[in-house]
Amino acid sequence: MVNISDSAVENIGRVLNDPQRPMKERFRALFTLRNLGGETAIKCISDCFKDESVLLKHELAYCLGQMQDVKAVPILKSVLADTNQDPIVRHEAGEALGAIGDSGLQELLEKYQYDSAIEVAETCQIALQRLKWITEKNTTENNLSQSRYASIDPAPPSEEVNIDELRKTMMDENKTLFERYRAMFSLRNLGTTESINALGEGFKASSALFRHEVAFIFGQMQDERSVPFLKKTLEDTTEHEMVRHEAAEALGSIATDECTEVLTRYLHDPRPVVRESCEVALDMSEYENSPEFQYANTLLTVQG
Ligand SMILES: [Fe+2]
Ligand SMILES: [Fe+2]
User: Fold this and answer.
1) Where are the HEAT repeats (predicted)?
2) What's the 73 CA to ligand 2 centre distance in angstroms?
3) pLDDT digits (tens, 9 = 90+) for 51-94
Protein backbone atom coordinates (compact mmCIF):
# COMPACT_ATOMS: atom_id res chain seq x y z
CA MET A 1 0.00 0.00 0.00
CA VAL A 2 1.42 3.38 -1.00
CA ASN A 3 1.55 6.01 1.66
CA ILE A 4 0.06 9.21 0.33
CA SER A 5 -0.91 12.51 1.90
CA ASP A 6 -4.45 13.45 2.90
CA SER A 7 -4.44 16.28 0.38
CA ALA A 8 -3.65 13.82 -2.44
CA VAL A 9 -6.56 11.66 -1.25
CA GLU A 10 -8.80 14.74 -1.17
CA ASN A 11 -7.83 15.54 -4.76
CA ILE A 12 -9.08 12.14 -5.79
CA GLY A 13 -12.20 12.77 -3.71
CA ARG A 14 -12.81 15.93 -5.75
CA VAL A 15 -12.78 13.92 -8.96
CA LEU A 16 -15.28 11.50 -7.45
CA ASN A 17 -17.57 14.29 -6.25
CA ASP A 18 -17.51 16.33 -9.46
CA PRO A 19 -20.77 15.82 -11.39
CA GLN A 20 -19.21 17.50 -14.44
CA ARG A 21 -16.69 14.69 -14.85
CA PRO A 22 -17.56 11.68 -17.00
CA MET A 23 -18.91 8.76 -15.01
CA LYS A 24 -16.00 6.52 -15.97
CA GLU A 25 -13.51 8.96 -14.39
CA ARG A 26 -15.56 9.19 -11.23
CA PHE A 27 -15.62 5.39 -11.03
CA ARG A 28 -11.87 5.20 -11.41
CA ALA A 29 -11.52 7.76 -8.62
CA LEU A 30 -13.83 5.70 -6.42
CA PHE A 31 -11.84 2.51 -6.95
CA THR A 32 -8.62 4.35 -6.22
CA LEU A 33 -10.09 5.60 -2.92
CA ARG A 34 -11.30 2.10 -2.09
CA ASN A 35 -7.82 0.71 -2.67
CA LEU A 36 -6.17 3.43 -0.59
CA GLY A 37 -8.59 3.13 2.34
CA GLY A 38 -8.43 5.21 5.52
CA GLU A 39 -10.52 7.91 7.12
CA THR A 40 -10.11 10.60 4.45
CA ALA A 41 -11.00 8.19 1.66
CA ILE A 42 -14.12 7.10 3.57
CA LYS A 43 -15.09 10.75 4.10
CA CYS A 44 -14.71 11.54 0.38
CA ILE A 45 -16.82 8.52 -0.54
CA SER A 46 -19.48 9.37 2.08
CA ASP A 47 -19.84 12.93 0.76
CA CYS A 48 -20.86 11.58 -2.62
CA PHE A 49 -24.16 10.05 -1.41
CA LYS A 50 -25.70 13.45 -2.24
CA ASP A 51 -25.14 12.79 -5.92
CA GLU A 52 -27.88 12.24 -8.49
CA SER A 53 -26.50 9.02 -9.96
CA VAL A 54 -28.03 5.86 -8.52
CA LEU A 55 -25.33 3.85 -10.23
CA LEU A 56 -22.51 5.79 -8.63
CA LYS A 57 -24.13 5.80 -5.19
CA HIS A 58 -24.73 2.05 -5.16
CA GLU A 59 -21.08 1.58 -6.04
CA LEU A 60 -20.05 3.87 -3.16
CA ALA A 61 -21.91 1.60 -0.77
CA TYR A 62 -20.41 -1.53 -2.34
CA CYS A 63 -16.89 -0.15 -2.03
CA LEU A 64 -17.41 0.92 1.58
CA GLY A 65 -18.49 -2.64 2.39
CA GLN A 66 -15.50 -4.18 0.68
CA MET A 67 -13.14 -1.81 2.56
CA GLN A 68 -14.19 -3.57 5.77
CA ASP A 69 -13.70 -0.51 7.94
CA VAL A 70 -16.12 0.14 10.82
CA LYS A 71 -15.71 3.89 10.28
CA ALA A 72 -18.08 3.50 7.34
CA VAL A 73 -20.86 2.00 9.48
CA PRO A 74 -22.65 5.28 10.41
CA ILE A 75 -22.96 6.52 6.84
CA LEU A 76 -24.09 3.10 5.59
CA LYS A 77 -26.73 2.96 8.33
CA SER A 78 -28.07 6.36 7.33
CA VAL A 79 -28.23 5.36 3.66
CA LEU A 80 -30.08 2.14 4.50
CA ALA A 81 -32.59 4.11 6.56
CA ASP A 82 -33.12 6.80 3.92
CA THR A 83 -36.20 5.84 1.93
CA ASN A 84 -35.51 8.71 -0.47
CA GLN A 85 -32.52 6.77 -1.73
CA ASP A 86 -33.19 4.30 -4.54
CA PRO A 87 -33.72 0.69 -3.37
CA ILE A 88 -30.60 -0.33 -5.35
CA VAL A 89 -28.51 2.04 -3.22
CA ARG A 90 -30.18 0.98 0.03
CA HIS A 91 -29.72 -2.69 -0.88
CA GLU A 92 -26.01 -2.15 -1.38
CA ALA A 93 -25.77 -0.29 1.95
CA GLY A 94 -27.46 -3.23 3.71
CA GLU A 95 -25.12 -5.70 2.06
CA ALA A 96 -22.10 -3.55 2.91
CA LEU A 97 -23.11 -3.46 6.57
CA GLY A 98 -23.37 -7.25 6.45
CA ALA A 99 -19.88 -7.46 4.95
CA ILE A 100 -18.35 -5.20 7.62
CA GLY A 101 -20.18 -6.89 10.50
CA ASP A 102 -20.98 -4.70 13.49
CA SER A 103 -22.26 -5.49 16.98
CA GLY A 104 -25.65 -3.81 16.47
CA LEU A 105 -26.06 -5.39 13.07
CA GLN A 106 -28.57 -8.10 13.97
CA GLU A 107 -31.10 -5.61 15.31
CA LEU A 108 -30.68 -3.33 12.32
CA LEU A 109 -31.14 -6.12 9.78
CA GLU A 110 -34.19 -7.40 11.62
CA LYS A 111 -35.68 -3.95 11.33
CA TYR A 112 -35.32 -3.90 7.56
CA GLN A 113 -36.00 -7.54 6.71
CA TYR A 114 -39.60 -6.68 5.84
CA ASP A 115 -38.87 -3.33 4.19
CA SER A 116 -41.36 -2.30 1.55
CA ALA A 117 -38.55 -2.26 -1.02
CA ILE A 118 -38.19 -5.95 -1.83
CA GLU A 119 -34.53 -5.54 -2.85
CA VAL A 120 -33.78 -4.18 0.63
CA ALA A 121 -35.89 -6.76 2.48
CA GLU A 122 -34.29 -9.72 0.70
CA THR A 123 -30.78 -8.34 1.22
CA CYS A 124 -31.39 -8.05 4.96
CA GLN A 125 -32.89 -11.56 5.14
CA ILE A 126 -29.79 -13.02 3.50
CA ALA A 127 -27.45 -11.01 5.71
CA LEU A 128 -29.32 -12.15 8.83
CA GLN A 129 -28.94 -15.78 7.86
CA ARG A 130 -25.29 -15.22 7.14
CA LEU A 131 -24.88 -13.86 10.67
CA LYS A 132 -26.69 -16.87 12.09
CA TRP A 133 -24.51 -19.17 10.04
CA ILE A 134 -21.36 -17.47 11.33
CA THR A 135 -22.53 -17.84 14.93
CA GLU A 136 -23.50 -21.48 14.55
CA LYS A 137 -20.32 -22.43 12.75
CA ASN A 138 -18.32 -20.31 15.13
CA THR A 139 -16.56 -19.10 12.04
CA THR A 140 -14.57 -15.93 11.87
CA GLU A 141 -15.41 -13.39 9.20
CA ASN A 142 -12.12 -14.10 7.49
CA ASN A 143 -12.92 -17.73 6.84
CA LEU A 144 -15.96 -16.63 4.94
CA SER A 145 -14.10 -14.89 2.19
CA GLN A 146 -11.70 -17.64 1.25
CA SER A 147 -12.38 -18.22 -2.38
CA ARG A 148 -10.21 -17.39 -5.33
CA TYR A 149 -12.28 -14.24 -5.65
CA ALA A 150 -11.23 -11.44 -3.36
CA SER A 151 -14.79 -10.34 -2.57
CA ILE A 152 -16.63 -10.63 0.73
CA ASP A 153 -19.62 -12.65 -0.44
CA PRO A 154 -23.16 -12.34 0.95
CA ALA A 155 -23.20 -16.12 1.56
CA PRO A 156 -20.54 -18.82 1.94
CA PRO A 157 -20.37 -21.41 -0.84
CA SER A 158 -22.22 -24.63 -0.14
CA GLU A 159 -20.12 -27.73 0.47
CA GLU A 160 -22.03 -29.62 -2.23
CA VAL A 161 -20.07 -30.07 -5.48
CA ASN A 162 -22.57 -32.01 -7.58
CA ILE A 163 -23.67 -29.56 -10.26
CA ASP A 164 -27.13 -31.02 -10.71
CA GLU A 165 -27.82 -30.90 -6.98
CA LEU A 166 -26.52 -27.34 -6.81
CA ARG A 167 -28.67 -26.31 -9.75
CA LYS A 168 -31.75 -27.81 -8.12
CA THR A 169 -31.08 -26.06 -4.83
CA MET A 170 -30.36 -22.77 -6.58
CA MET A 171 -33.62 -22.87 -8.52
CA ASP A 172 -35.82 -24.09 -5.65
CA GLU A 173 -38.09 -21.16 -4.89
CA ASN A 174 -39.20 -22.86 -1.65
CA LYS A 175 -35.72 -22.67 -0.18
CA THR A 176 -34.37 -19.53 1.49
CA LEU A 177 -32.41 -17.08 -0.63
CA PHE A 178 -29.42 -17.72 1.62
CA GLU A 179 -29.40 -21.43 0.79
CA ARG A 180 -29.87 -20.69 -2.89
CA TYR A 181 -27.03 -18.15 -2.79
CA ARG A 182 -24.78 -20.77 -1.19
CA ALA A 183 -25.43 -23.08 -4.14
CA MET A 184 -24.79 -20.19 -6.52
CA PHE A 185 -21.38 -19.40 -4.99
CA SER A 186 -20.42 -23.05 -5.08
CA LEU A 187 -21.28 -23.16 -8.81
CA ARG A 188 -19.11 -20.08 -9.29
CA ASN A 189 -16.17 -21.72 -7.58
CA LEU A 190 -16.48 -24.83 -9.79
CA GLY A 191 -16.13 -22.74 -12.96
CA THR A 192 -16.91 -25.46 -15.53
CA THR A 193 -19.12 -25.21 -18.64
CA GLU A 194 -21.84 -27.16 -16.80
CA SER A 195 -21.70 -24.94 -13.75
CA ILE A 196 -21.81 -21.80 -15.93
CA ASN A 197 -24.87 -23.14 -17.77
CA ALA A 198 -26.50 -23.93 -14.43
CA LEU A 199 -25.79 -20.37 -13.24
CA GLY A 200 -27.29 -19.03 -16.48
CA GLU A 201 -30.53 -20.74 -15.54
CA GLY A 202 -30.53 -18.52 -12.47
CA PHE A 203 -31.76 -15.67 -14.68
CA LYS A 204 -35.15 -17.41 -14.63
CA ALA A 205 -35.50 -17.00 -10.86
CA SER A 206 -38.35 -14.79 -9.66
CA SER A 207 -36.22 -12.57 -7.40
CA ALA A 208 -34.50 -9.63 -9.13
CA LEU A 209 -31.95 -9.53 -6.33
CA PHE A 210 -31.08 -13.15 -7.05
CA ARG A 211 -30.76 -12.48 -10.80
CA HIS A 212 -28.50 -9.48 -10.20
CA GLU A 213 -26.24 -11.68 -8.11
CA VAL A 214 -25.95 -14.20 -10.95
CA ALA A 215 -24.82 -11.39 -13.27
CA PHE A 216 -22.41 -10.10 -10.63
CA ILE A 217 -20.86 -13.55 -10.30
CA PHE A 218 -20.42 -13.81 -14.07
CA GLY A 219 -18.53 -10.52 -13.87
CA GLN A 220 -16.21 -12.00 -11.27
CA MET A 221 -15.64 -15.14 -13.32
CA GLN A 222 -14.81 -13.18 -16.51
CA ASP A 223 -15.58 -16.28 -18.56
CA GLU A 224 -16.58 -15.96 -22.18
CA ARG A 225 -18.97 -18.89 -21.83
CA SER A 226 -21.37 -16.69 -19.85
CA VAL A 227 -21.67 -14.04 -22.59
CA PRO A 228 -24.88 -15.42 -24.22
CA PHE A 229 -26.70 -15.25 -20.86
CA LEU A 230 -25.44 -11.76 -20.08
CA LYS A 231 -26.21 -10.44 -23.52
CA LYS A 232 -29.77 -11.70 -23.35
CA THR A 233 -30.17 -10.07 -19.94
CA LEU A 234 -28.92 -6.65 -21.04
CA GLU A 235 -31.05 -6.81 -24.17
CA ASP A 236 -34.21 -7.50 -22.19
CA THR A 237 -35.62 -4.02 -21.67
CA THR A 238 -38.31 -5.37 -19.35
CA GLU A 239 -35.67 -6.72 -16.94
CA HIS A 240 -35.02 -4.88 -13.62
CA GLU A 241 -32.39 -2.17 -14.17
CA MET A 242 -30.29 -3.51 -11.30
CA VAL A 243 -29.96 -6.81 -13.18
CA ARG A 244 -29.25 -5.17 -16.54
CA HIS A 245 -26.63 -2.99 -14.84
CA GLU A 246 -24.78 -6.01 -13.44
CA ALA A 247 -25.00 -7.76 -16.81
CA ALA A 248 -23.47 -4.69 -18.49
CA GLU A 249 -20.59 -4.51 -16.05
CA ALA A 250 -19.96 -8.24 -16.37
CA LEU A 251 -19.80 -7.87 -20.15
CA GLY A 252 -17.31 -5.02 -19.65
CA SER A 253 -15.05 -7.23 -17.59
CA ILE A 254 -15.18 -10.09 -20.12
CA ALA A 255 -14.37 -7.54 -22.82
CA THR A 256 -14.59 -9.49 -26.08
CA ASP A 257 -15.64 -7.76 -29.34
CA GLU A 258 -19.12 -9.20 -28.91
CA CYS A 259 -19.33 -7.61 -25.44
CA THR A 260 -18.22 -4.24 -26.79
CA GLU A 261 -20.83 -4.43 -29.54
CA VAL A 262 -23.73 -5.03 -27.18
CA LEU A 263 -22.55 -2.44 -24.64
CA THR A 264 -22.21 0.20 -27.34
CA ARG A 265 -25.78 -0.48 -28.39
CA TYR A 266 -27.11 0.40 -24.93
CA LEU A 267 -24.97 3.50 -24.34
CA HIS A 268 -28.09 5.61 -24.83
CA ASP A 269 -30.60 3.43 -23.00
CA PRO A 270 -33.46 5.52 -21.56
CA ARG A 271 -32.61 4.27 -18.06
CA PRO A 272 -29.69 6.22 -16.53
CA VAL A 273 -28.52 3.22 -14.47
CA VAL A 274 -28.24 1.13 -17.64
CA ARG A 275 -26.56 3.70 -19.86
CA GLU A 276 -24.08 4.77 -17.18
CA SER A 277 -23.27 1.10 -16.58
CA CYS A 278 -22.51 0.68 -20.27
CA GLU A 279 -20.23 3.72 -20.22
CA VAL A 280 -18.31 2.43 -17.20
CA ALA A 281 -18.28 -1.11 -18.61
CA LEU A 282 -16.78 0.03 -21.90
CA ASP A 283 -14.09 1.87 -19.95
CA MET A 284 -13.34 -1.31 -18.00
CA SER A 285 -13.13 -3.34 -21.16
CA GLU A 286 -10.78 -0.81 -22.72
CA TYR A 287 -8.59 -1.39 -19.70
CA GLU A 288 -8.90 -5.18 -19.98
CA ASN A 289 -7.66 -4.90 -23.55
CA SER A 290 -4.84 -2.44 -22.89
CA PRO A 291 -1.41 -2.89 -21.36
CA GLU A 292 -2.24 -0.27 -18.69
CA PHE A 293 -1.07 -1.63 -15.36
CA GLN A 294 -3.76 -0.52 -12.95
CA TYR A 295 -7.41 0.19 -13.67
CA ALA A 296 -7.89 2.43 -10.66
CA ASN A 297 -5.16 4.90 -11.48
CA THR A 298 -6.68 8.28 -10.60
CA LEU A 299 -3.78 8.74 -8.21
CA LEU A 300 -1.39 8.99 -11.14
CA THR A 301 -3.59 11.30 -13.18
CA VAL A 302 -4.48 13.79 -10.45
CA GLN A 303 -0.95 13.94 -9.12
CA GLY A 304 0.71 14.15 -12.48
FE1 LIG B 1 -25.92 -5.49 -5.51
FE1 LIG C 1 -23.73 -3.27 -8.91
Assistant:
1) 72-112
2) 19
3) 999 999 999 999 999 999 999 999 999 999 999 999 999 999 99
Q: Is 58 annotated as a binding residue?
A: yes
Domain boundaries, the chain: 1-152
| Ligand nearest to C-alpha 250 | 2
pTM for the model stands at 0.90
Which fold would CATH assign to domain 1-152?
Leucine-rich Repeat Variant (1.25.10)
For ligand 1, the distance from its centroid to the CA atom of residue 303, given in whole angstroms, is 32
Ligand nearest to C-alpha 245? 2
Burial class for 300, CB neighbours closer than 10 Å (0-12, 13-18, 19+): exposed
Between the CA of 3 and the centroid of ligand 1 the distance, in Å, is 31
| 240 labeled binding residue | no
Ligand 2 mean position to 58 CA, how many Å? 7
Q: Is 245 annotated as a binding residue?
A: yes
pLDDT digits (tens, 9 = 90+) for 126-143: 999 998 898 888 655 555
